[in-house]
Design goal:
The complex is a heterodimer of chains A (about 120) and B (about 110). Chain A is mainly β and about 120 residues long. Chain A is built from no helices and 10 strands. In chain B, about 35% of the residues are buried. Chain B is an all-beta fold. The radius of gyration of chain B is 13 Å and the shape is globular. Chain B starts with a strand and ends with a strand. The chains are: A mainly beta (about 120), B mainly beta (about 110). Chains A and B meet through β5 of A and β4 and β5 of B.
Chain lengths: ~120, ~110
């Protein structure tokens, strides 16, 4: 069974940094592109970033480009999102998700940016 | 960027009804379209990929159709557990945009 477990969320002050992790199991992690998707309180889903199987190709939403960095470690079956210069509008539940047709989702980790 | 527009934004229906949700892409995306269901406080659940293929374990009451720019999700014989918010998302290019969601409520 596919399992994606996010961690690393929490309360951070504006301008601060946070690193999210996603542990994958139940499938061949290195064979799939992966995404981060977020959902602000009471709002819809917003795609944040994607990374190809080897990390060669990386894409970001305009709202996070230059502030967030996606990465992966296929040896550890793990996906990461380094977030810096955080703003109040980055407050959201952050989900990792397997890309494309074989989409699977984690349960999410909550990031709150507030002073 | 490709914009995804869902309609309606909200929908009231009764148990046993059949409903259809529409998703329109601002440009052609082939059949690179997925549908998700989300219940309050829960992570999204994948329902359909490639516009019309059911994810494993998803009941056949859910069906999808369309290609190019116009897509539909149909849910037949609504049950209480089907009342949720539904999202479409394209995966034909980047950014992978979502529709704004359709909230399906009990009438």
């Amino acid at each position: 069974e596919v399992h994606l477990v996010e961690s690393g969320g929490g309360l951070v002050k504006p301008g601060g940094s946070l690193r999210l992790s996603c542990a994958a199991s139940g499938f061949t992690f290195s064979s799939y592109s992966m995404n981060w998707v977020r959902q602000a309180p009471g709002k819809g889903l917003e795609w944040v970033s994607s990374i190809s199987t080897t990390g060669t190709y990386i894409y970001y939403a305009g709202s996070v480009k230059g502030r967030f960095t996606i990465s992966r470690d296929n040896a550890k079956n793990s996906l990461y999102l380094q977030m810096s210069s955080l703003r109040a509008e980055d407050t959201a539940m952050y989900y990792c998700a397997r890309d494309g047709a074989a989409t699977a989702w984690g349960q999410g980790t909550l990031v709150t940016v507030s002073s | 960027d490709i914009q995804m527009t869902q309609s309606p934004s909200s929908l009231s229906a009764s148990v046993g009804d059949r409903v259809t949700i529409t998703c329109r892409a601002s440009q052609g995306i082939g059949n690179y379209l997925a549908w998700f269901q989300q219940k309050p406080g829960k992570a999204p659940k994948s329902l359909i990929y490639a516009a019309s293929s059911l994810q494993s374990g998803v009941p056949s009451k859910f069906s999808g159709s369309g290609s190019g720019t116009d897509f539909t999700l149909t849910i037949s014989s609504l049950q209480p557990e089907d009342f949720a918010t539904y999202y479409c998302q394209h995966y034909s290019s980047y950014p992978r945009t979502f529709g704004q969601g359709t909230k399906l409520e009990i009438k």
